[in-house]
Amino acid sequence: MTKYVVERAIQAVIVAWLISLATFILFFTIKDPARAMAGPEATAEDIERLRVALRLDRPLHEQYFAWLGSALKLDLGRSLYSSEPVTSMIARRLPPSLLLAGTALAITIVVGIPLGILAAVRRGTLIDLGVTLIGVIGQAMPIFWFGLMLIMLFAVTLGWFPVGGRGTWRHLVMPAIALAYWVMPLMLRLARSSMLEVLGQDYIRTARAKGLNERVVVMKHALRNAAIPLVTIIGLQFGALLGGTIVTETVFAWPGIGEMVVTSVMTGDLPVVQGTVLLLGVWVVLMNLLADIALVAVDPRVRYE
């Protein structure tokens, strides 16, 4: 197991480095930071002096290693407009996004997995058809449109929840449901297919032949093995959910990292966008690594493969 974890950790570090390289090249070739900081009325001489002061006149590889060294020290630069450290801005906005993503993941696990299992156990019935239809609709529906429909129904028409913002638990309900329904179809379909595969195994037929109660067969014998693929997908989805908050937070005016990214893109605040993209990329890599480690803990056979 130790060798497996070390190999996965090395792969994660390599992928994280490639993400940092891609992030640097992409954003530093799209926009000149010196020109953005100098403003539209700056002369060419002003821009050149600022470029020298920021050490942007150095070769690109020197700039990259300097930026990477600062990033490893959690120094992602400063906002071009507020001059606030990007790390401080992310630290202030990250907890609301983690709360939203965590709540959405909890809803997905509590609702999506049981529905998938129920559909597998009741295969070919109206229950199976209904659950499958829920998954298809969720997969085809844009998250922003679903969020707007929730606002129109539960905030504007019924007045049950606030339209947007963050305050009490009532502000969290609609954005969490919208974000959860974005990833629930995948979890639902995987739970259904995994359970169907396990229910067709010989040991399940043997357990039924022994006269065991169907609930015992499903919950004790089938569910344990069917849950193994779900361990990996849960970790992957938590990484994806943090990225999915960008649209959700914009629709519901949730003051998280996603709303900050959208605002920074619109204003051209390069360091904020660059730092946030790097953070989200490393976050996904970390979640993948933790999912791999959890999978080994659940299914020891993986380490031999």
Question: In summary, what is this structure?
Answer:
This protein is an all-alpha fold and 305 residues long.
Please render the helix and strand layout as text:
Blueprint: H1 2-30, H2 33-38, H3 44-53, H4 60-72, H5 86-121, H6 126-140, H7 143-157, H8 169-199, H9 202-209, H10 214-226, H11 228-252, H12 257-267, H13 270-298
Helix pairs in contact: 1-13, 5-6, 5-8, 5-11, 5-13, 6-8, 7-8, 7-11, 8-10, 8-11, 11-12, 11-13, 12-13
Describe this structure in words.
This protein has 305 residues and is mostly helical. The chain folds into 2 domains: 2-72, no CATH class; 95-304, MetI-like fold (Orthogonal Bundle). The chain is 79% helix and 0% strand. It has 13 helices and no strands. Helix 5 packs across helix 8 (169-199) and helix 7 packs across helix 11 (228-252). The termini are close together.
| CATH second-level architecture of the largest domain | Orthogonal Bundle
Quickly name the level 1 CATH class of the largest domain.
Mainly Alpha
**What's the SSE pattern?**
HHHHHHHHHHHHH
User: What gross morphology would you assign?
Assistant: flat
Overall domain count: 2
Query: Unreliable runs, pLDDT <50, ≥5 residues?
Result: none
Number of β-strand runs: 0
How would you state the average pLDDT, rounded?
A: 81
Q: Give the CATH topology of the largest domain.
A: MetI-like fold
Oligomeric composition of the shown chains: single chain
Quote the distance from N terminus to C terminus. Answer: 11 Å
From the helix content, strand content and strand pairing, which structural class follows?
Answer: mainly alpha
CATH superfamily of the largest domain: MetI-like
Question: Measured on Cα atoms, how large is the radius of gyration?
Answer: 24 Å
Helix residue percentage: over 70%
Count of discrete alpha- or pi-helical segments spanning 4 or more residues: 13
How does the major sheet shape up? none
**How large is the share of residues in beta strands?**
under 5%
